[in-house]
Amino acid sequence: MALPALHAPRPEHRAEKPAWLRVRAPAGAAFEDTQSLVRRHGLNTVCEEAACPNIGECWSKRHATVMILGSVCTRACAFCNVATGRPDALDPHEPDRLAEAVGELGLAHVVITSVDRDDLPDGGAAQFARCIRRLRETAPATTVEVLTPDFRNKPGAVEAVADARPDVYNHNLETVPRLYADVRPGARYYGSLRLLERVKERDPGIFTKSGIMVGLGEEPAEVLQVMDDLRAAGVDFLTVGQYLRPTPTHHPVARHVTPDEFERYATVARAKGFLMVSATPLTRSSHHAGRDFEELRRRAATTAPP
């Protein structure tokens, strides 16, 4: 398969953003209702903190990705818009507030993510587990997806979350290994791969998921190698989306990858054996997560050995 050569990096300007990356401004009664509920329960969402371009669509459908463990991160990744600094105090009532919000929204599928909390002995793993277990008590029909940090190899952290049995365990690689020093300096590529592998070792029944951004300066061949590495780790679901620069101080966009290129990435990923692939310019880890989970479960059932 012929994939395009890398173009020389150049700064991104709003006027240069191609048509396929333009989205409508958030508006509408359903959007405002979701926003009000999030405020009322004192929840943080990655939709707002990370300036997700899909917030209008998702909130209008009453979908939100909840961010636990506060809104301040202990790391400063070059692609991320979440605030960095002294972290918030751990809130013991957070699992209850999350459960109340999920019940009020009537969610069939919920995605829970967090900032990095390198200051905590377990990286916040126990809080993830408490949130999952509280949701199992209050909303047993709701399926649960977690998008965790790497916990910086804190002993037992990954296992604690896996033992709470989320339906989907997502941890994003974000980019190719060569770019980690510039894009994700606080993390290690092979450490993240090993995390995903450990989830499958702990509980093969949990679906695993990971995602990368393109347009950061990676070569197409490097993206294909990441796919191979993820499949070797047993990952079920791959997401690939366009990197968008949150502010002029963040990592520049090297180029805007075209929809046709994304489709070629998706075709190759399916051929490599992923159960599910979402590869579009506006793909994000939690975009259409509930719908994708149902399809993931259906495909797993049809491909299972008799």
UniProtKB/TrEMBL annotation:
[4Fe-4S] cluster 2 binds at C73, C77, C80. GO terms for molecular function: 4 iron, 4 sulfur cluster binding; lipoate synthase activity; metal ion binding. Pathway: Protein modification; protein lipoylation via endogenous pathway; protein N(6)-(lipoyl)lysine from octanoyl-[acyl-carrier-protein]: step 2/2. Its cofactor is [4Fe-4S] cluster. InterPro entries: Aldolase_TIM (IPR013785), Elp3/MiaA/NifB-like_rSAM (IPR006638), Lipoyl_synth (IPR003698), rSAM (IPR007197), rSAM_sf (IPR058240). [4Fe-4S] cluster 1 binds at C47, C52, C58, S286. GO terms for cellular component: cytoplasm. Residues 286-306 are annotated as: Disordered. One of its GO terms (biological process) is protein lipoylation. Its main location: cytoplasm. It is an enzyme of class 2 (transferase). Residues 59-275 form the Radical SAM core domain. Keywords: 4Fe-4S, Cytoplasm, Iron, Iron-sulfur, Metal-binding, S-adenosyl-L-methionine, Transferase. It catalyses: [[Fe-S] cluster scaffold protein carrying a second [4Fe-4S](2+) cluster] + N(6)-octanoyl-L-lysyl-[protein] + 2 oxidized [2Fe-2S]-[ferredoxin] + 2 S-adenosyl-L-methionine + 4 H(+) = [[Fe-S] cluster scaffold protein] + N(6)-[(R)-dihydrolipoyl]-L-lysyl-[protein] + 4 Fe(3+) + 2 hydrogen sulfide + 2 5'-deoxyadenosine + 2 L-methionine + 2 reduced [2Fe-2S]-[ferredoxin]. Belongs to the radical SAM superfamily. Lipoyl synthase family. PANTHER family: LIPOYL SYNTHASE (PTHR10949), LIPOYL SYNTHASE, MITOCHONDRIAL (PTHR10949:SF0). NCBIfam families: lipA (TIGR00510), PRK05481.1 (NF004019), PRK12928.1 (NF009544). This is Lipoyl synthase. It comes from Azospirillum palustre. The lineage of its organism: Bacteria, Pseudomonadati, Pseudomonadota, Alphaproteobacteria, Rhodospirillales. The gene is lipA.
